[in-house]
Prior knowledge:
By secondary structure, the chain is an alpha+beta fold. It has a single domain (about 5-155), classed as Haem-degrading domain (Beta-Lactamase, 2-Layer Sandwich), CATH 3.30.450. The chain has six helices and five strands, in the order H-E-H-E-E-H-H-H-E-E-H. It has helices spanning about 5-15, 25-40, 65-80, 85-95, 100-105, 140-155; strands spanning about 20, 45-50, 55-60, 115-120, 125-135. Strands 1-4-5-2-3 form a five-stranded mixed sheet. It is globular and about 40 Å long.
Amino acid sequence: MTDAVPLAELAAEEEELQFTRFTADDAWAIGSRLVAAGREQGLPIAVDITRNRHQLFHAALPGATPDNDSWIRRKTAVVDRFGHSSLYVRQSSIERGTTFEAEFGLDPAEYAAHGGAFPVLVRDVGPIGAVVVSGLPQVDDHRMVVAALRAHLAG
Length: 155
């Protein structure tokens, strides 16, 4: 699967996938949905959900490694700093003819603009946290999070 997703598509997802409020119960429900999907498909993923830098949910499925936790931390740092999905930030640099690394010069040990971290967006407030999957190719990580958020918000 290609790792190029048009920025307009990523922006539309962020506009669509917004909450009116976000609770610990929402984190549990979304995290549980992601874990169930991962188990059903036998995926080696780790899942993490934060609100205001407070970890509300974390799980690692068989095959996930400590490296996944490092990816989660670095992808979350991108969401926290830029307020957009980690894939959006990556694609934004690409569409400006550069790379995230070259454009911002941030320490790669601290920041990873790779797909899989999506901001928890509260309408009329903005980003307050992140839902993150690590363990698959970056676009698959991203799409897994988007699917879980879409399903949760649909009720």
